[in-house]
Amino acid sequence: MILDTQKTEKFLIAKITEQDANLEIADKFRDEIFALIEQDNHRVVLNFEEVTYVDSSFLGAMVAGLKKALSLGGDIFLVELKKDIYNMMHLIRMDKVFKIYTHAADIE
Amino acid sequence: MIATLKKILLVDDSAFMLAMLANAFEKESFMVIKAASANEALTILETHKPDIILSDYEMPIMNGFIFRQLLLKNPATKDIPFVFLTTHKENELVMKGLGELQAVDFINKDTPIPVIISKLDNLLSTVRQKQAHAVEELRKAAEAINVKSIPTKGPSFKSFEVGFWHEPYHGYPGGDFIDFIKVNDRYTYIILGDVMGKKWIAWFFTFSYLSYIRATVRFLVSDEKTDPAYILQKINQAICKDEVLKDVLAGLSLLLVDEQTSNVKYAGAGDVPLLFYKAAEDELTTVKTSGLLLGLFSNAVYDSHDITLKPGDRLLVFSDGLIDFTEESGKRKSDYELFKKNVHPYLKMDRSFTIIRGYLQGLLKDGRQADDASVISIYKK
């Protein structure tokens, strides 16, 4: 499993357990996040604590997950991003697509 | 050669054998993943794709035969070259099942380790040669029907010098594309796009994207709607409605070069921000727009920037393959600011594009490349 999940009152926290979030695990990630969303977890918090690199294939899978969540009235939040990854997200305007917070506790 | 390390998955229930093999393969620059059982190997394979698997045959709980059968059932693992490590008494058994199990080979446990390594090394070379051959055949076929994601030659300009360069990732065609659309003697559109994803899948989609872009530009220009931001908006709407492309995202830089005024109108969609070198001030600035990736939301709005180039000024348009790199530790990173700082001295007035290209080629050498990389330089003469 790529996602280590923990259910809270407000949302489902899904921690990415791989450091290199890349092409090799993108499909598997997509399947896992879709399955979670379909199990009525419409508000998902993706925890990036372990992640040191995200490639465009993985980013594409994240967006597919976001579209799925949005279509069901939910959302995907990103937390615990390393500076490099946040900078990359900001660079290509993904910070306007995903709601990014420092910690899960900051999400209203 | 970090990024081109050969990755091997070793499966053996004997801790001693596993450690010995791992040690020997690591010494020969293999990246080794160890599994003490077939079950552990199956878990590893959910998140890792080795270049080759070397597995013990006789193991408790799940033996090599069942392990191999399970791998064959999974599309993600069935094509990874697989070699059995066997004892003499198992040889016959494996021989019988070799066809059914589609194992590439089996190696006797008594074989000296250097021989095992060299055998596997040769096997991998053959696999890579076959892959390279298949890539070449596809490339030839694509060329024959005149589909190119990167042109061989750009248009000529009177007052600008435009150079471009593309470096595929590990020789595979990828999601980057470049195009030039000359409207008339005065106006030319310059396009650099990056379909998200890697290798084949991204490459196939570049042609669909290019078709939309070319058609939209031509159609809107004939209607005198030339603003790149407006064109991006229309391309995005078309893509979001396309059943095949709607989940395929792409970054795009679209520039309209005006030869008469030396003005460049730029609009971007989730692209890597441009670099603008001003010769008079020897200053390098980032030019960024607010547009989102194409294919995300059909109601996305795009904005354009006017950039006027004076003699000696240069615009650098590039894909993320130039800011991504692999560190010596094997970790991959993205660093736009580092790239900006390092490329600055190469953008000065007296530097030709050949020198810039040489510098960029050096950046991606020795396995540091992490994605396909493209760049377009627009220099005002």
Tell me about this structure.
The complex is a heterodimer of chains A (108) and B (381). Chain A starts with a strand and ends in a 7-residue tail after the last strand. In chain A, α1 packs parallel to α2. Chain A has 108 residues and is an alpha/beta fold. The relative contact order of chain A is 0.19. Chain A contains three helices and seven strands; from the N terminus they run βββαββαβαβ. In chain B, 36% of the residues lie in helices and 26% in strands. Chain B is built from nine helices and 17 strands. In chain B, strands 2-1-3-4-5 form a five-stranded parallel β-sheet. The longest helix of chain B is centred in the middle third of the chain and has 32 residues. Classes of the chains: A alpha/beta (108), B alpha+beta (381). The interface between A and B is medium-sized, with 32 and 35 residues.
What is the gist of this entry?
The complex is a heterodimer of chains A (108) and B (381). Chain A is an alpha/beta fold and 108 residues long.
Features:
heterodimer; A: 108 residues; alpha/beta; five-stranded mixed beta sheet; globular; B: 381 residues; alpha+beta; five-stranded parallel beta sheet; five-stranded antiparallel beta sheet; 9 helices
